[in-house]
Design goal:
This protein has 206 residues and is of the alpha+beta class. 47% of the residues lie in helices and 18% in strands.
């Protein structure tokens, strides 16, 4: 009787743990959902502040996603999202995190990564994804992304909201440059005269 009760309780604990894990995951892609990636962001920010280490925050958006849905259908759009996520997660470090922030927008966290390192890693991911189309039935669908990134050694004045704002502004700048490109934001407290760094740009409308 005691053994049976123990098995029931163990099964219940496992079920509750599974449900908790599922509540933190995006249903389509399996990566962290918006709530979970923001919670991870808070943890990474506090750790970087304590250790006086860099934290890179990137907003990634799939270019012309509405056009993909309009031309190929919403199921194809889902496949493009999954293809993009798989491409990124396979190439990120174990210490990095990625979450679905919006429909076709993702938040990527790169602890211990300097501005130069973040640009190198993320721009390589952008370029390699552009060379790897998604497959949906007989259709080969080109996938392009725009990226806005902010990398700082956070102090007490930095918050998840402020760093997100900088990364989002850099993403908006990348979109304005023609998409399929990356922009690196420099927070005002570091370079008030130049909010975005001048890095080589690769633009392509698609």
């Amino acid at each position: 009787m005691m053994i049976s009760l123990g098995l029931v309780l163990l099964s219940k604990e496992r079920s509750e743990s599974l449900l908790q894990q599922m509540a933190l995951r995006d249903v389509l892609t399996g990566i962290l959902n918006r709530r979970a990636i923001l919670e991870q962001f808070s943890k990474d920010l506090e750790r970087s502040r304590r250790e006086n280490a860099y934290l890179a925050v990137a907003m990634v958006d799939i270019d012309h996603f509405k056009q993909i849905n309009d031309v190929h259908g919403h199921l194809a759009g889902d496949e493009v999202i999954c293809h993009c996520v798989n491409h990124l997660t396979e190439r990120l470090r174990h210490s990095d995190s990625i979450g679905r922030y919006g429909g076709e927008e993702f938040l990527v966290l790169l602890p211990g990564t300097s501005p130069e390192g973040a640009v190198a890693v993320l721009d390589q991911l952008r370029a390699s994804l552009a060379e790897t189309p998604a497959q949906f039935g007989d259709a080969s669908i080109a996938v392009r992304i725009s990226i806005g990134v902010c990398s700082v050694m956070p102090d007490d004045g930095d918050t998840t909201a402020s760093l997100l704002a900088w990364a989002d502004a850099a993403l908006y700048e990348a979109k304005g440059l023609g998409r399929n490109t990356l922009r690196l934001a420099q927070p005002c407290r570091l370079r008030s005269a130049a909010p975005f760094s001048e890095i080589p740009q690769t633009t392509e409308s698609s």
